[in-house]
Amino acid sequence: MMRVLFYAVCISLLSGCGYAIMAPPVALQKHDVADADKDGVINARDRCEQTPIGAIVDNQGCPSYVEPNTTAQASETPATSLRVLFANDTAKVSPDYVTDITAMADFLTQYPGVSVRLTGHASAIGSPEYNLRLSRERARSVRAELVSAGIDPNRIDIDALGEALATQTDPNAPQDRRVSAELLNFKGDVEKAWTIFTRRPQ
User: Which strand (E) or helix (H) includes residue 84?
Assistant: First the structure.
């Protein structure tokens, strides 16, 4: 009798020992640990968004801007300036300027926080109304080239001046048929991190 009672107690105890497996707790992420501009500083701590690619940054993700060492370095280069000339009465970009436009696109890719304003111009031949439209089409053509090179169109402003700045002494001056570029939000060059492609100071 005692043995039967013992087994009955054991069975009842074992049947009551079942338990549900609880899922492990999930930690709530209160901070953004992503690194949108890939500068090595997480978004939650990054005070400078859209850091130029390859820049040396501080603990807050902000780069250091450097002054050019020489007059030659301080002068404008095709990467930071752009002037595209056009044939008379056309908005088609000549292949001669594809390299310059590509250099500008590469620069804008490296500096994602920088935008550009393209201003179209025309010579004094023709009516002012027509020249205004033509200068705008020229600016749009250069923008299309930059967009095809991977630049977000929202970073490219368009302006058109027509013949407003045309050379009065020469109504057919080639330099009047142009698109010029102006960088927006550009603070200057940044100090770059060393890579295998970095050149030693001469």
Answer: strand 83-85
Q: Checking phi first, is residue 162 left (phi over 0); if not, alpha (psi -120 to 50) or beta? A: left
Q: What is the pLDDT of residue 43?
A: 75
Q: Are 117 and 68 in contact (CB under 8 A)?
A: no
Tokens of 143: 């923008």
Q: Which residues pair with 156 in a beta bridge?
A: 116
Sign of torsion, CA 106 109 110 111? positive
Q: Tokens for 130? A: 């027509």
Amino acid at the residue 39: D
Query: CA 97, CA 109: separation in Å to the nearest integer?
Result: 18
pLDDT block averages, 10 residues each, the chain of length 202 = 57 54 68 74 75 71 63 51 93 95 93 93 93 97 96 96 86 88 82 55 48
Residue with tokens 């089409």: 137
Task: Identify each DSSP E strand in 74-188 by its residue range.
Answer: 83-85, 115-121, 156-162, 178-184
Is the pTM above the cut of 0.90?
A: no
Q: Under a CB-based contact definition with an 8 Å cutoff, are residues 180 and 130 in contact? A: no
Strands 115-121 and 156-162: parallel
3-state class (DSSP) for residue 33: coil
